[in-house]
Design brief:
Length: 267
Amino acid sequence: MIGLGLGLDRGGFVPKPFLPTDLANLEAWYKADAGIITVSGAVSVWANQAPSGSAKDVTQGTAENRPAYGSTQLNGIDVLSFDGGHFLRNTTPSEWKFLTDASDYTVIIVGRAGKSSNPNAAHAFCGTQVVSPFVYSIFLYDDRSSVSRNNQIAHELTTGGGALVVLNRLNDTFLPNEWNHFSFRTDPDNATASERSIINVNGGADLKNSAATGTPSTSNPSGDFEIGRVSVLPLVGDIAEIIMYARQLSLGELTQVNNYITSKWAL
């Protein structure tokens, strides 16, 4: 029957909406509208929604370090709020080897950093801790006027000993104190340095790193995985969603994820 407003195509079939699980190699998926356990309005557990399951759940057992939940919304959905002392953690570094070894991967984040247009601080959204022997991967926004990477979003990946493998910085596209969705598509052992790291912010043009050096580590990260803080780099801001794949998404696949994000979060 035609004209009943059922949203059917000519074959009577309604296409299934795209979800991040439709793409292969989804390792971790944290979304603010699922997998949340709260205690007195603060998050104690954020459960991984990827098929890899609970091995990558992040938790916080100390009440004063738990991010707030429900104090801020995006498109009518409660999100997690971090004040610089809040963070969630997974204490099994081997689960995060895909972020530091020579394999390629993609990390997509919906979040905002800072409470002003010039926060003048470094804000880590997520990553593995900076501890000896210094095998780590961090996804951050750095707005410190005292450093050369002021007002830049970055993915910092190192080998043991701290030699940089991928360091991609991007000026003037990520907006502090504003909601952004941004991705890091990383291929750290690519023979062409400019192809090792690709950043995309708010669905804009891809920006590629051109100065990556070093040999990728094949070790587990040196420390735990954290959301809302990485070592001494705390986030003041909010996170709505984090999606991680253990491979580098194609531009077409990234477009699918970006469309999902912009529809869901009205960005």
